[in-house]
Task: inverse folding
């Protein structure tokens, strides 16, 4: 695999992630091969993705430092993977590395400067939390693991919105996605609270473009963002990113009560 020549050990990460996806029910011919063939056939799309990557990464450090008064230390790599994700953060050779998959970016049609900017900022939001707060959580408890994922995705979305200076910005927003999520926020929050006790990688319906929550994808990113913004109303962002799982559990209980109360209030109007 060519990428090991540039970022050693990425090959094994990509292959292991692909194997886990295949074991969970995805199919090589149906789910992987069409995406990879599209990249091979669309030279213009590949070139535009590379151009956007270069355009967006030029001023990132200055933007982050201006807003948060701290920088992040990471390598950002655009590569052709095995449908491992449009963006993910890994530790390779002692370095924090943001991997951006050309094949998934093109599949999702995130082929404009706004989408590329949002994607990279989101992944750097994870890096920011890892380097200036608490990001890694070791637990065998499924509910804690998915609640922590909700929290960390919300942190990354908050970070992304703050850099673009728009608290209503979601790079996932297509075909009324944000408005639908807002109207159904209380229901999503309650469903997540119920589901997280039995959630697995195979049955979760909140994170990913391949999942389905009442006909919508990625609703966990909206829910997580609203949760973190709720926390940031009474705590600084710098303190929020240091939360441990007990703080997150307590905060999510308060958040669920809050949105349920707002929903009831709106129903009476």
Result:
């Amino acid at each position: 695999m060519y990428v090991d020549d540039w970022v050693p050990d990425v090959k094994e990460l990509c292959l292991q992630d692909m194997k886990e996806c295949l074991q969970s029910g995805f199919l090589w011919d149906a789910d992987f091969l069409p995406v990879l063939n599209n990249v091979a056939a669309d030279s213009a799309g590949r070139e535009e993705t590379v151009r956007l990557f270069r355009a967006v990464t030029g001023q990132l450090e200055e933007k982050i430092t201006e807003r948060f008064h701290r920088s992040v230390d990471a390598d950002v790599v655009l590569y052709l993977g095995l449908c491992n994700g449009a963006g993910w953060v890994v530790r390779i050779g002692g370095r924090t590395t943001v991997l951006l998959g050309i094949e998934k970016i093109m599949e999702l049609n995130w082929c404009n400067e706004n989408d590329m900017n949002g994607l990279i900022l989101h992944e750097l939001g994870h890096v920011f939390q890892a380097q200036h707060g608490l990001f890694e959580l070791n637990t065998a408890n499924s509910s804690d693991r998915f609640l922590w994922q909700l929290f960390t995705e919300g942190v990354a979305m908050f970070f992304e919105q703050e850099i673009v200076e728009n608290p209503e910005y979601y790079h996932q927003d297509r075909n009324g996605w944000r408005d639908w999520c807002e109207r159904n926020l209380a229901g999503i929050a309650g469903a997540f609270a119920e589901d997280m006790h039995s959630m697995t990688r195979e049955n979760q319906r909140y994170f990913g473009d391949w999942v389905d929550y009442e006909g919508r994808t990625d609703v966990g990113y909206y829910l997580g963002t609203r949760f973190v913004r709720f926390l940031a109303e009474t705590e600084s962002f710098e303190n929020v990113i240091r939360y441990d799982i007990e703080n997150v559990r307590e905060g999510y209980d308060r958040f669920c009560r809050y949105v349920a109360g707002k929903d009831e209030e709106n129903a009476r109007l």
User: Anything to note?
Assistant: The chain has a mean pLDDT of 92. The first strand starts at residue 75 and ends at 79. The beta strands are 75-79, 87-92, 95-101.
